[in-house]
């Protein structure tokens, strides 16, 4: 889904994902970073460009390149997807970041920007997030955001090798958003000067 939405704050800038980001994204993607994804590892800029084309062609998906606001360096990518305006719900995912951004303010900044847009601009009643249940790093990151665990969908995912895995599901509801927002703002306090 082509879009013109840009989100800025806390040192991060989310811009519409397009083929110009393919080469920089290809440099950060490897087997370990891609573990838990349901698509094969895209190897090289051409494969990443094809993945970008597929993402932007998907109805209900707004895909972003995540940039360093100061330098313009591509940090990774994330998306809104399964956007259902009539039902006031959306999911956040398809997220991956270069290792140097793991454990920094990058993920909470991106999620705060996206959640704020979903709840305060779109008026969402529900935002969901999910991860491969075996991906303890992603599950822990979603938990730290303040999302509520909803359970595990068994045999819900198919890996590129054909094996099946479980999906851990989480959500944030509109009445929970103020507390989640405040928790993220507290985590991001050192980065607030550019918010």
TrEMBL record:
GO terms for molecular function: acyltransferase activity, transferring groups other than amino-acyl groups. InterPro entries: Acyl_CoA_acyltransferase, GNAT_dom. Residues 13-147 form the N-acetyltransferase domain. Coiled coil: none annotated. Pfam families: Acetyltransf_3 (PF13302). Signal peptide: none annotated. PANTHER family: BLL6696 PROTEIN, N-ACETYLTRANSFERASE DOMAIN-CONTAINING PROTEIN. This is N-acetyltransferase. It comes from Cellulomonas chitinilytica.
């Amino acid at each position: 889904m082509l879009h013109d939405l840009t989100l800025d704050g806390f040192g991060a800038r989310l811009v519409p994902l397009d083929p110009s980001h393919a080469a920089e994204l290809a440099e950060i993607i490897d087997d370990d970073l891609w573990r838990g994804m349901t698509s094969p590892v895209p190897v090289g800029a051409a494969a990443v460009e094809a993945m970008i084309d597929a993402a932007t062609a998907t109805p209900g998906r707004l895909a972003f390149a995540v940039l360093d606001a100061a330098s313009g360096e591509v940090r990774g990518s994330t998306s809104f997807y399964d956007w259902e305006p009539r039902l006031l719900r959306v999911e956040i995912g398809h997220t991956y970041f270069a290792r140097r951004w793991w454990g920094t303010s990058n993920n909470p900044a991106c999620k705060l920007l996206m959640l704020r847009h979903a709840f305060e601009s779109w008026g969402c009643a529900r935002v969901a997030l999910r991860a491969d249940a075996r991906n303890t790093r992603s599950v822990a990151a979603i938990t730290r955001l303040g999302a509520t665990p909803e359970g595990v969908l068994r045999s819900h995912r198919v890996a590129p090798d054909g094996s099946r895995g479980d999906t851990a599901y989480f959500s944030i509801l509109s009445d929970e958003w103020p507390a989640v927002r405040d928790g993220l703002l507290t985590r991001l306090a050192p980065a607030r000067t550019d918010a």
